Amino acid sequence: MNYSIASLLRRTRTCKGGRARVRNWSGSDDEGQALVETALVVPVILIAVTGILVFGIFLNQILSLTEGVGNAGRVLADSGGLILDPCATAATAFQNSAPSLNPKNLSYSLTLNPTPGSSAGQQSASSTTGANFTCASTSTTTGDAGALVSGGSVTLQVTYSNCSLTFYGNKLLPNGCSISQSVTEAVQ
To answer: Helix, strand, coil proportions of the chain in percent (round to 5)?
Structure first.
């Protein structure tokens, strides 16, 4: 394209302060283009980032639940014949391992089996959501504590209800969100 000096001069405009400004070659004025593009792109980016954050929080809850159940199972497996309240020990170990989970939204189920492969002497305890989890015995040889013996097995299941899967006030799972993890360990 050949541009003469006269055509270039026609494409200039005088700004405040007496300086000349050259318009783009098409002759149109693009002063508001960046603002319009920003107004179109920013909401899409904000929705994407918020969705990533919500999903990240949900994954953190799953990982915290998994880590807490595993640690509580290991504590119980190492506590055969040493504790009077295996339920409270499991709940305390879990809550210490997963402090980001609200204890009011947790429910526990503990099954102690002194003889693997048999249900003879099996003890079970469970709690409702938000309740204290306890199954205290007066000695390590009676009740639930008596079923936590070396060579036996312990199964702990923890359920976390009311997990956070809401996106701009809308629940992503209309029936609510509940995640559950369980572990079975051999008692040492």
So the answer is: 35, 20, 40
Q: E strands of the chain, at which residues?
A: 12-14, 20-22, 106-113, 123-126, 153-161, 166-167, 170-171, 178-186
Contact, 58 vs 164, CB < 8 A? yes
Which pLDDT tens digit goes with each residue over 100-146? 999 999 999 999 988 876 777 788 888 877 778 888 888 888 888 88
Residue 101 DSSP class = S
- Tell me the HSE value of 140 on the side-chain side, using a 13 A CA sphere: 8
Domain locations in the chain? 33-186
Q: What is the pLDDT of residues 64-80, one digit of tens each?
A: 999 999 999 999 999 98
Are the C-beta atoms of 86 and 110 separated by less than 8 Å? yes
Identify any residues that bridge with 167 across adjacent strands, giving them in sequence order: 170
User: Is the pTM here over 0.70, yes or no?
Assistant: yes
